[in-house]
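=== Structure Prediction Worksheet ===
Name of assembly: unnamed complex
Input type: mixed (protein and possibly other molecules)
Chain count: four
Listed entries:
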Amino acid sequence: MKIIIEKDYEAMSQHTCHILLGHMSQAKRVNVCLTAGRTPKRMYDFLVESVKDKSYYRNVHYYSFDETPVFTPEGVRIKGDNQSQLEALFFKPANIAQSHSHFLSETNYETFPQEIELAGGLDLMLVGIGEDGHICANMPESTQFNQLVYAIKLTDEFPWNAEYQKSLNGNYSDYMYTLGAKSILKAKHLIMIANGEEKADILKQALEGPISEAIPASMIQLHPNLTVITDDKAGAKLTLTNLG
Amino acid sequence: MKIIIEKDYEAMSQHTCHILLGHMSQAKRVNVCLTAGRTPKRMYDFLVESVKDKSYYRNVHYYSFDETPVFTPEGVRIKGDNQSQLEALFFKPANIAQSHSHFLSETNYETFPQEIELAGGLDLMLVGIGEDGHICANMPESTQFNQLVYAIKLTDEFPWNAEYQKSLNGNYSDYMYTLGAKSILKAKHLIMIANGEEKADILKQALEGPISEAIPASMIQLHPNLTVITDDKAGAKLTLTNLG
Amino acid sequence: MKIIIEKDYEAMSQHTCHILLGHMSQAKRVNVCLTAGRTPKRMYDFLVESVKDKSYYRNVHYYSFDETPVFTPEGVRIKGDNQSQLEALFFKPANIAQSHSHFLSETNYETFPQEIELAGGLDLMLVGIGEDGHICANMPESTQFNQLVYAIKLTDEFPWNAEYQKSLNGNYSDYMYTLGAKSILKAKHLIMIANGEEKADILKQALEGPISEAIPASMIQLHPNLTVITDDKAGAKLTLTNLG
Amino acid sequence: MKIIIEKDYEAMSQHTCHILLGHMSQAKRVNVCLTAGRTPKRMYDFLVESVKDKSYYRNVHYYSFDETPVFTPEGVRIKGDNQSQLEALFFKPANIAQSHSHFLSETNYETFPQEIELAGGLDLMLVGIGEDGHICANMPESTQFNQLVYAIKLTDEFPWNAEYQKSLNGNYSDYMYTLGAKSILKAKHLIMIANGEEKADILKQALEGPISEAIPASMIQLHPNLTVITDDKAGAKLTLTNLG
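=== Predicted Assembly ===
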């Protein structure tokens, strides 16, 4: 595990972008799996600037790792929440070809891990961490560590579901789909980003505490090639050295 | 995960040997981590025959993954149990140079993971599984998943300790040392071997059940490049396909 | 470079098979590029026995590296010479699925290197060597080292063409297609096999002499992970140690 | 081969630095081989800023690839020309530990390729190109392509020797030492940088012309993972696309 604590969100975002570009600049197919959310926003500003319309990055294929299809009250499907975010953050402003954009969805999730495998596996996977310890859409107690992919039925058994459904403005979701631990640990280089003091506790727990399905993000301790990049606040409570 | 169920112990041993030779036959440094015990005995017969005095395998370095130092009642250290076994099974009959033999011990265990790292990491790790679900010397409830290496104090808190000490014929051990999950999951190719019907239940549980520190071997489900080779009996209860 | 001189053709064939199986036994997509010809015949006997109907090898995809389409005097295309050979030697007896069989031909040769690239590259490439120093269908002076793939017009400028056309029993060929040095050097592990005393001189020249387009096989000296396996006769004149 | 033509020397230097950081940011030993000379000067400014005193880069080991020992007229050895340059450009300002600095010299050149091999090989190698087509210290007609390392006796048979000796201000050199093609092609990622219009012709010739020992840099066409980064002037005459 390598831990890089940058002085602020700007520096953390630039550094993350450079690591991505380092991989992408190789002269062979490179498969990159990307996260949506708030944390990578500034990173995508830099990445779009570097990648937009650059033909020398056409060796790169992009993948998403989770999806929550949203439906209107009438049951009409609205484009997946995650795909919409990723398109707005990166795919559209960077003009990424559709043939190089691979989105997990309710129609392909069962074969998505195999699609990745047949393309040579993920060279790089970028993930965030939730304040509740979630990683991708592996929510606490909603998935285990022993599958490549999960379909999670959204019921009120999950304490976070009510609030999530409320956030959809009258629409609703019935399932979430996500790559699981077995897929995440296959990525050749895993990069976790986190910023803000509200992430400091969970990050410490995930990286320095026991490995447990109650804190899904704790699985990343088992990744053979993990780099964690934070701003000064999210990394403030870490006591780990980089050994191991 | 790839599961190979061979028709008998002989076929399983040959197949395992061939996989090892496949890696070792590359033209670059190859680091191989080997298991002692009963399961690999026949495999070592084949390996010794292929490797003995062959200068073209001098690119290979060998590592062990655990050790239990044994002491006489007077406190004199007898050579480590695991090293003694490995030397008898492989290192002596195959004439492996000392400079290519790297044994974990009570004096180097803290830096052993780093020694492996500095040598480019393990290309291949061969492990067995205990009927109690142990892997390397990660005994049930004696280690967690979040360290590279463990020193386990042998006390009667562990239900298996009394019997173990009895097996030492008047001698005793105070500590066991073993690579942990974080090291095992770093090997580029992990091979688990198992034979005999007494391994069928635990193998099914480890490969198809939940991932839990109560069954340390269950961690291998998370390995990105895992091959399991069994005879017909140990593999008899597996229902897994090879997908994932 | 690693050089393995076995005691006879049988031992060389078995050893080569074991190296292939070692790679194929990994738990991820493995791309293997195979040679036809006389040299690998016995190796395919062993390989077919190990691979036939084994579902645990369905992670393997197979590629060919050259082709010479043959035409009747009336201009009707007969199945490619190389594909026919490979099917007889391996693909048919081993029951390899068509979806896992990728043959270079006159219709796909321009995009074949890219097809390989998009599938993650070749993990293993098995080649022979001709008495004239050819490798794949890179004949002396018919190709250079600076392309991924070549279409070679078969004219009598090439001293070997007349004899080749004669061997086709009244049929004829107008072009040969072959992966070139740039593709061959991309394979992650390159294995050259040679047997018989008639190969001893050219093997020595290719491995120990200058690197030159006059001896196309000499290019393999530049491969970063090359294993050469011979019987006692083909390897008899090599003076190289395995260093480097 | 990937070709990246940046808008100027500043952009090319930054981009090169980012690729290096991308590799170095992995959580495992990373071996980087660096070039001295004029071309990488600005790149080192950026690299020093990113690397200086950063404990999270202590997984990186640095290597040089050539050396020309310099002697006073009295025969007293002055520190190697290349080591001195690299120390001034990078090792001293970035405070790189001596234990992580590996310089090729007249005393270790014969075992230097093996030292690299035993450390897991080079993950990244950064090279420039000379106007005469040299790469590392492989000068035209002074080395071939078939060795890991060369000791080149500096005699006036080489047309460039007189001028070189003159540049040493009354001192002299008798030998140059350099990694050869076989070592250069083993690096897992090879990056060539070039700037200025005086490099445009030779770069085109090296990348698009025949592969020949008369233009030693032409060997890089054979590298399986090559990235070329130039400013607008050095890349101005390239007609290559990035395919292949």
